[in-house]
């Protein structure tokens, strides 16, 4: 196994004193399939239309549907990831750009001060969502809403969203929220309340541009800053000081 020893950063992205954790890397199962199952219907439909247009010698349509097929193959890709394993680690729930790291009052689910980390996923990012920590799902809350651009702050409260509340084995609770964007109109959540997830395990997907918000304990050691690009299931977002994982 590989070891990862990146420095711990505070909320502003500056290094903080203290020992660097040794992180073990666990590969995903060998049965991994490279395309998310939610993409099969789109890929098959556009593939058939491409074939029909080509058979009918309608080249412009064949090219158009062929490009849509290629885009769906790319959009619904599900690359294999090596998930860091370590006490208290919080991994990224998705690929994308960190657009917010701030202290907030989380009044909907945790009802306590928390650290908010927001990740914007554009249409070219992998859109598979992964559990940020190992733990039991103690709540799933869906809220229909609007479809503002996912990279603006009001998207966190006003857009369609689905929240997972996870509790680690040490009793630490965090919130992971899938948020639809301007183009995204479908949030997929494959899990149910009461299920237990491993850190980095896949639990859903958001189609065609979106955002993921994390609400972490106020004491977390944050290891990302605004402007960082992260990879779902691989990038370390922070460490829980209490040792929850």
Write the layout of secondary structure elements.
Elements: E1 3-4, E2 23-27, H1 40-55, H2 59-75, E3 82-85, E4 89-91, E5 96-106, E6 112-121, E7 128-130, E8 135-143, H3 155-158, E9 161-167, E10 173-180, E11 187-189, E12 196-197, E13 202-206, E14 210-217, E15 221-222, E16 229-230, E17 236-239
Antiparallel strand pairs: 1-2, 2-3, 4-17, 5-6, 5-16, 6-14, 7-13, 8-9, 8-12, 9-10, 10-14, 11-13, 15-17
Helix pairs in contact: 1-2
Description:
The protein is α+β, with helices and mostly antiparallel strands and 245 residues long. The chain has two domains: 37-75; 89-239, Glucose Permease (Domain IIA) (Distorted Sandwich), CATH 2.70.70.10. 15% of the residues lie in helices and 36% in strands. It contains three helices and 17 strands. The strands form four sheets. An eight-stranded antiparallel beta sheet has the order 12-8-9-10-14-6-5-16. A three-stranded antiparallel beta sheet has the order 1-2-3, with no helix packed on it. A hairpin with a 5-residue loop joins strand 5 (96-106) and strand 6 (112-121). Helix 1 runs antiparallel to helix 2. The two termini are 19 Å apart.
């Amino acid at each position: 196994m590989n070891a990862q020893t990146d420095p711990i950063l505070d909320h502003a992205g500056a290094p903080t004193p203290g020992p660097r954790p040794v992180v073990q890397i666990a590969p995903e199962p060998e049965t991994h399939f490279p395309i998310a199952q939610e993409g099969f219907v789109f890929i098959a439909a556009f593939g058939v239309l491409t074939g029909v247009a080509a058979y009918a010698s309608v080249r412009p349509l064949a090219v158009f549907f062929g490009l849509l097929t290629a885009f769906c193959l790319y959009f619904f890709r599900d690359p294999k990831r090596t998930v860091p394993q370590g006490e208290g680690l919080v991994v990224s729930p998705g690929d994308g750009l960190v657009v917010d790291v701030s202290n907030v009052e989380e009044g909907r689910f945790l009802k306590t001060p928390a650290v908010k980390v927001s990740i914007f996923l554009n249409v070219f990012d992998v859109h598979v969502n992964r559990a940020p920590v190992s733990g039991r799902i103690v709540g799933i809350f869906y809220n229909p809403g609007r479809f503002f651009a996912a990279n603006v702050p009001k998207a966190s409260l006003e857009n369609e969203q689905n929240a997972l509340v996870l509790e680690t084995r040490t009793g630490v609770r965090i919130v992971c929220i899938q948020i639809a964007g301007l183009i995204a109109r479908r949030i997929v959540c494959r899990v149910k309340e009461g299920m237990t997830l491993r850190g980095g395990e896949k639990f859903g997907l958001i189609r065609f541009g979106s955002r993921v918000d994390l609400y972490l304990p106020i004491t977390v050691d944050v290891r990302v800053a605004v402007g960082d690009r992260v990879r779902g299931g691989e990038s370390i977002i922070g460490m829980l000081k209490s040792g929850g994982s």
